[in-house]
Amino acid sequence: MKHAKKAPSRRTEDERWSRDIATLRQAAQKLAQRRNEVQRSPGDIQFNEIAELLDDPSAAVREKAVRDLYELDADRAATLVNDALRDGSPEERRRIGSALADSGLLYEAIDDLIRWLRRGPSLARVTGVEIDDSLPPAGLEGFTIRP
After folding, report:
1. For residue 111, which of 131, 139, 128, 140 has the smallest C-alpha distance?
2. CATH (residue range 41-119)
């Protein structure tokens, strides 16, 4: 009697996939690092030094680091934070998310958005904006534009 080869378990495949992805990310980071070493400016070095503070055990240091990164280069800081929130461990995501929330930048961004909404795009006529800070009912998705 011939025995069929046992298919690898889903868990084993997932573990192998995770290891392969981690290896590819690490290789990509090393390649990017080698390419950037030649092109580094003092601003890059300062940005990277501040970014390392996101791992500091002090919440106050992480909060200041987030604000300093956004003041130095907002687009680059947003990319760094988005990547960290997407790819980081749960603990890293919690630390960076807390630092971002505690820095006040999220509230400033929301206030900027509300100011823009009240003004609207250049060809728009905004007659009013209502802000409801309550949580949406369960199952509510999307939005509608009223006449």
Report:
1. 131
2. 1.25.10
